[in-house]
Each structure stands twice: as C-alpha cells, then as structure tokens.
Amino acid sequence: MNVELPDATVEFAAVVARALMADDAPDGAGLFGVLDEMGVLDLAGSESADPDNAQLNAVVVLDEIARAGKRAPVAETIWARSRGIDTGRGFVAVASEARMAHDRLVPYGRFALSLLSGTCDAPVPIDLPADVRPARIEIDHDHLWLPPTTPAPALAQLDQAFAWRAASAATVGAMARATDLAIAHAHQRVQFGRPLASFQALQFRLVECHWRLLGLRLLVREAGWRADRNDGRADVVSALAWLYARDVGRIVTKHTHQIFGAIGFTREMGLTTVTGSAATLRALYPARDAAAVVRAGRAWVDDAPPSTILGGFLTDHQAVPA
Amino acid sequence: MLTTVTRTDFDFSNEQEAFRAELGQFLHERLPDDWQGIFVEGDEGWQLSLDICRELGERGWLTMAWPAAYGGQDASIWLQAILQEEYWAHNEPRGPQYMNVNWLGPALIHFGTDEHKAYFLPKLAAGEMMWAQGFSEPDAGSDLAALKCSAVPDGDGFVVRGHKIWISYGDIADYCFLLCRTDPTSRRKEGLSVLLVDLSLPGVERRPISSTLGYHRINELFFDDVFVPRSALLGPQNDGWRVAMTALAFERSGSARYARSARTLGLMEQRHGDEWDDTRWEQYASLLAFARATELVNYGVISKKETGEVPRVEASAARIHNSLLEQALADFAEQTTGLDFIVYGADDHAVDNGELESMWRNSFAATVTAGSYEIQSGIIAHSLGMEGRR
User: What residues of chain A lie within 8 A of the CB of B284, using their CB?
Assistant: First the structure.
C-alpha cells in the first residue's frame, strides 16, 4: 500500500500545470495544441509514455486542466485516441445521454472540430453536423444541442467507468480552482476592519472544501490506478468516485459562493463558470447509474461484514453500460 | 530524510491480507458473540480485555511496528495499520491499551529516558499496563493551555495538586500521562511538563462520571498533594506542551475508527438492504463512497509517515473524516433502521447486541473527543494561511 503518486506522474503533472498557466487561450484550438504537444491527449493510449499508469496519469492531468480553468472536450479526445481513433488536428466532442425534448447535449462541443458518430462498436469522427446549435446554459456556456437525427453514442455508453473517472477528475480540479479563488478572495476582502480569512465561520467553510477535496482526489486516483490494472473493482471504485464527486461538488460550490458574496456571481470573477461546469457534469451523469453498479457489486464471503469498504465488494464486477 | 515514491499501490499485499485473515480468525474465535467493547456494565469487559491483551502481547500482535529494541518487530507500518483496523472493527478488544501502541509508546520512545523505556515499554508490548490521558480540566477543555493543575518542584520530585476531568479509563488505569504546570509563574503554553504518574500513589482519587457514553468511559481524577518522583518527568521540564502536542499528533493519526464504520455499514446493509428502494440505495452508495475516501485519507497519513514526514495537517483531516463518517452513519441509521438504533444491547429486543445503538449513541461524541472538530479545523485553517483571533 502506498497512496502517494509516482514521482514520474508528479513531475508530468507539474509540467502540464506550468504549460497551462503560461497558455493564455482558455480553451479551443490553443489549448488543443498545448495538450497535444505534451502528449496529454495520448495519455491513455497503448503507446503512452507510461502504460502502467495511463489511466492514473489521465485523471491527474484532467484534474490539473480543470484546476487551471481550461474547458474543452479533453477527456472525450483522450478516450477516442485510446481506442485508436484519429481525431485530427482538434478536439473531438462526444454526445451525452442528457437531452431536452429530443435534442442531446454535446459537452463543450463549441471547441471541437468533430463529433464522434456511428455505432458504439465502431465510432468514427465526423464533421460537426450543420444543424447543431449553441445551448443556452447561463452557468456554463460552450455546449451544443445535437438534433436526434445524428447517430452518436454517448461517452457513458462507450465507456461508463471512464466517463465517471473523467467527470470526477474534472470535478476535483474545478472545485480546487473554486477553493483557490475563494481563499485568495478571503485574504484580500476586508470587512469589519478584518480580512474575511480571519473569521472562523468562514475559515471553516474553506477548511471543509480542503479536506473534502483531499479525500476525493485520492478516490479518483484510486479509480484510475485500478483501471490501469484491469482490477475487478475498478468500475465500482469509479462509481464511488463519481458519487462522492457529486456530493463534494455541491458542498464546495455552496461554500465558495458564500465566501465571495455578490461578486462571485459576476462574469468577470469567473466563479460561476467553474462551479457551473461541475453542475453540468452532475446533470450529464446521474447518481442512479453509479449507485446501481455499487449495489450490484456488493457481496462478502463471511457472515460478519468486512472491516474495509472494498472488502464488501465482489472482486470481478464489471459495470454494464447504461 | 524523505524517500521517493516509485510505485503507487492501493492494495495491501497478499502477505498482509493473509495476516489480516489470521488476526480476524483469532478475534472471531477468542471474543464472545456479544462482545461490544469494554464500555459496558460490569467488570467482565475490561477483565477480558486485559486477558486478550496479554495473549496478543505473547503473539507479538500489539506493537509490531515498534523497533525490536523496544519490544516490537520492526514490522511494516502497514501491518500495524491492519492490526488497528481489525481491532477497531471488532469493538477494540484492547480497551485502553490501544493508546499504548498509538501514541504513548511512540512518545516514550521519542522523549523517554533509558529508565522509562526499560520500565514501561516491555509492559506495553506485553499488554500488561493500562494508561489514562490527563489533559482536560474543568476550565481547560479545547483551550488546553489554560490548565491549572500544578506540580511544584519539591526536593527530588514534584507535589501535584489539581483536578482532571473527562478522563477515559481513569477508573481502571495504572498510570496517567499528566500534563501539568511546573512553573507557577508561567502562563499558557509555557512552564508545563508531562509527568508519568502512578495512579496508586497516596492522594490520588478517581471518580467515575455517569454518562450515556458507556461505563468506564469518562472519569475525574483528583490529585491532592500527590508526591511524584522526579524520575516521572517525561521530556524537558517546562517544555511539556511540545511533548503533549507530539503525543497528540501520534494519537490523531493512529486510530482506525473508520474500520468500525465499515463494519457498521455492512451490518445495516445485511439487515435492511433488501428493504431499501433505489433512492435509499443511492444514499447508501454515497455513504460507502465517503467511507472509502475516509479510508484513503487515513492511508495517506500512513504513506507520509512511511516516507519520514510528520503529517500533522493530514492527520487532522483524517480525524475529521473519521468522526464525520460516524455521524453520517448515525443519520443514515435513523432514517433506515426503525428502532434498531435506539435499543440498548442489554435489552431483549436488541439487534446485533446493540452494536448499531452503541455506534449511534457515541457518534455525537466523535467530533468532541480526542481533539474537537473545531480544533482540527483550526489546525487546517492555519496550514491554509488563515489565522484565528484569540
């Protein structure tokens, strides 16, 4: 047992974080170029630099990308490339199962050059259909509506456990960014003659954000680590990570908005873009599917319940795509 | 010196899991079916705890990760973690002696004289000595530095006078790890010392406090001009705050309370899971997720210890996880288990010997004892650059 990250992963994540900070483009083509050049988009591929830790590295980097405030269909592109799909010179978007009327949401479709279409067994990138239109989501722009006529599998249909890990990693990063912003604001903003950070009631909100993210981050990394090893509990741990990410996302969102007060709702501050992105993920991937996988995987050998959480799960349980 | 991590591993090794199975089998066979720990009516509980501790000591299963020179086996810190998990999951058959392994022994190894180590450590490793922690006072709880218990230097020793309260095991312990004021002119954290006080000395009085937390759970200790020899001083005189804080850091990261939560979750599921609808199962699955995150934060503390770090902030985060998990379990039990969670173990209708009731009843104390939620949060706030106002 050792839950610390491998040195190589730590070093790579630091390189990615520095490059993202230096990159002015928040999303889109500029971000694609930066990530592609560093090999981030091929992290989960069979030819990745560290195949033993491909999924672990992927969740660590998705966390860093979200923490840097970058938004694009990065996870979708990583997944496509891991299956040998040529995504060309730009991000590939993947439709979701979430729909209004008959239209389906395409997360961050505005930054994609192509859309994954066809069947689940043989998805291929196609040009974005001409009849896609922007989705009006006040808290989180940049998504598209896809008409029902376009055959396009959802990421959760293609690889449910990967979708949960990616959503969890993006939630960790987004909520860490919200917490970073709130801590900085709490030090700068003075009320009653004192910085907000000196008020214990507000300190404890930020403290909860900190310790919640500590646990969630470890859980997300465990999910990636188990996926790399084809561990029989990888899907269950991915589901657990997503269930906890949903809870932590709501908690951190409430705390950080409370710290910011009214200025937290301005577009200039950008907090709602961060917290809104996590809310969008929660809408895309319902808890019921993850809970169903957890429930189906529960079992233990003896009458007495086990003394560890994973001791209460089958060791060979695979998630079934919804 | 820090070591580098070359291999991440979220599993215990096969050898370690085999040891867990062997230990679990021993506890299953040795503990009575209705074992609920030592905080129950009568003296049978702690007498059994003493017997079991001696057996565990003979097997070398109390202090495995201690240095061999002090009665340990130089075993992996992860084997010690498995020991902690299995003991806590089985309602802590070591009773007060869990403290011996977690923080008392490490504090003695860190600060003790050769005489201390030679006298105390073999007894701790053999499971023959019970201790109490003498910190809180009527006017010094979370604000521990306000303590007044005095130990006035007198010849070749100290004369101790004062009142300690909320002392777990104070009625049965052999010795007390006493934090007291050795410089009468000092204030706050200055002028304090730690004395290792034999509780059979003349002038010591013990009074149990009746509470809903269980028998033997909390007590008062009165020291009425108790003469304690100078050899009982642990660490430098008047530097006791540092000694006590080091011991507390060991304590906060040493208890595997989360293992008992894992078992209690399983008990609830075993008895009621078939009755739950999908919504309830979503709540339960989310609770399992929080419980796994809690385990991992505790494992993170151990991982850092293994590399030579002193993970004070992570230990506080682990303590918060452990205690809030217990309260989350209690909330879930209220919503899902009917009367199971309020019927005491001694009642004819008790379910699983009242294990769920005991968990629920004690969950409210989880954020109070061993350093309150607020104290742990303050430690984390400090690490985030946020100072409090005293």
Answer: 291
